[in-house]
């Protein structure tokens, strides 16, 4: 039996020996995407060193660093000779050493290059595919693009090809791709641009609709030599079908369908095999505008009391037609058998017979047959035989004040009930109109200074009076 002293010495010796025994830990088996990565040995006491079972292909940046970067000039995925590389982490402590091995796979990083076939025509789908079409996963971003269809997945389940189109007027569109392979390695993001062909500019002449007589036209001169144009409006122009020239169109917007050969001639074979044609079809819109159109505008002067016209009645007419850049003539027909060719702004005519007359003004372009416009005075002018007494009574019993006025105008009468009021400027235009008048004050502070007429209307009478705003 050992003495207690000998047992203590033996125990102390064994603890000392155990404390000097190293423990190497090279970390977990790992996969690097690409040819390089950093090892992950667990640091312990002692001095560590990395070595490799394949030193001719492997470079260790710092063999004494537990997290040293390593580089391998071969990829091991799918490599029957070297399916992986062993890296050995050896730790030395005193005279003792320990080693641990980690298996490292160097996997290929997939590429994210994109193969594109541009749209055959503007607004049609582009063919977009990953150049490496056998991977497991593809992360596409078409941004504003709209997916028309998807080519069935490859053997690994990856959706590698799409047909995509865009709405809008832009012809350049951004897309991007990140690809992932079986080993989980991702490619860098690849951003690319799809360009659509623009609709050609055709040689077309538009003929104005002069005087709005329905004489406009569309004339194509096909500069491409391989285009066709089709009339599609069933209501105006020729029968729907191919055409190059159409005349006698009224002013308006017209759609013309065109067929032309795609400008992407390099992809003719693909377009024919995929879409069955190399042609594009679009609808173009053209506007025929009116030209040299006279516009007749006429009225009765504000001085005329329409309900108090008595033989002989003097009526002043106002020609409110705007001046034209082209030559025009003016004809007044007063409705009583009298005519007058005059373009003055104010024209006076005396009615010597009773009746209800309908005058009108014709503005005509003399150089173009049938190019005219007519303005009718409505309702008819009722010329009576005698009415001086009635008018005098109205003027005596209906008064306006103050006159001149600045902000407010008041109508005073004890005999008549007023139903509506109109204030008319010097050109006969209504500037204030009050229906259901209740004898209130009329605000005129927002009207320019000048001479005005106020038309006062009741159930059985009508009169107008002049006043001044200053």
- For the secondary structure, the number of strands is 40
CATH-scheme architecture of the largest domain: Sandwich
Anisotropy-based shape? elongated
Question: At the first level of CATH, what is the class of the largest domain?
Answer: Mainly Beta
Task: Give the CA-CA distance, first to last residue.
Answer: 140 Å
Low-confidence stretches: 1-18
Give a short account of the largest sheet.
Answer: 4 strands, mixed
> Any idea how many domains?
5
Percent helix: under 10%
Query: How is the largest sheet built, in terms of strand order?
Result: 1-7-6-3
User: Superfamily at the CATH H level of the largest domain?
Assistant: Immunoglobulins
What is the overall number of helices? 3
Look at the structure and give the mean pLDDT.
89
Radius of gyration: 49 Å
Structural class determined from secondary elements = mainly beta
Strand percentage lies at 35-45%
What fold name stands as the CATH topology of the largest domain? Immunoglobulin-like
């Amino acid at each position: 039996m050992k003495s207690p002293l000998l047992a203590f010495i033996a125990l102390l010796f064994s603890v000392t020996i155990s404390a000097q025994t190293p423990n190497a830990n090279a970390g977990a088996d790992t996969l690097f995407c690409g040819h390089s990565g950093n090892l992950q040995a667990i640091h312990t006491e002692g001095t560590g060193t990395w070595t490799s079972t394949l030193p001719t292909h492997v470079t260790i940046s710092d063999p004494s660093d537990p997290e040293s970067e390593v580089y391998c000039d071969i990829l091991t995925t799918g490599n029957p000779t070297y399916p992986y590389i062993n890296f050995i982490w050896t730790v030395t402590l005193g005279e003792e050493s320990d080693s641990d091995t980690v298996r490292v796979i160097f996997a290929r990083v997939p590429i994210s290059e994109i193969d594109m076939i541009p749209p055959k025509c503007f607004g049609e789908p582009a063919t977009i595919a990953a150049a490496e079409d056998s991977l497991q996963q593809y992360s596409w971003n078409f941004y504003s693009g709209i997916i028309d269809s998807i080519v069935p997945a490859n053997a690994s389940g990856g959706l590698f090809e799409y047909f995509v189109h865009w709405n809008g007027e832009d012809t350049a569109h951004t897309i991007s791709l990140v690809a992932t392979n079986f080993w989980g390695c991702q490619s860098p993001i690849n951003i690319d641009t799809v360009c659509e062909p623009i609709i050609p500019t055709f040689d077309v002449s538009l003929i104005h609709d002069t005087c709005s007589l329905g004489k406009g036209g569309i004339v194509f001169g096909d500069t491409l030599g391989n285009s066709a144009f089709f009339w599609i409006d069933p209501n105006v122009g020729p029968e729907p079908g191919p055409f190059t020239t159409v005349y006698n169109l009224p002013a308006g917007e017209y759609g013309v369908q065109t067929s032309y050969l795609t400008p992407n001639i390099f992809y003719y074979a693909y377009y024919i095999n995929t879409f069955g044609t190399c042609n594009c079809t679009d609808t173009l819109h053209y506007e025929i505008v009116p030209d040299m159109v006279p516009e007749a505008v006429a009225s009765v002067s504000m001085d005329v009391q329409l309900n108090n016209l008595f033989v002989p009645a003097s009526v002043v007419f106002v020609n409110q037609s705007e001046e034209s850049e082209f030559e025009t003539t003016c004809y007044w027909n007063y409705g009583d058998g009298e005519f007058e060719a005059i373009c003055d702004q104010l024209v006076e005519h005396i009615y010597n017979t009773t009746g209800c007359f309908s005058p009108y003004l014709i503005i005509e372009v003399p150089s173009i047959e049938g190019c005219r416009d007519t303005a009718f005075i409505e309702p008819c002018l009722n010329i009576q035989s005698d009415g001086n007494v009635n008018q005098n009574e109205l003027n005596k019993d209906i008064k306006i004040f103050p006159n001149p006025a600045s902000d407010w105008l008041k109508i005073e009468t004890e005999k008549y009930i007023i139903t509506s009021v109109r204030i008319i400027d010097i050109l006969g235009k209504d500037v204030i109109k009050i229906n259901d008048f209740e004898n209130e004050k009329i605000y005129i502070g927002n009207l320019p200074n000048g001479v005005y007429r106020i038309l006062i209307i009741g159930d059985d009478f009508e009169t107008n009076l002049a006043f001044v705003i200053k």
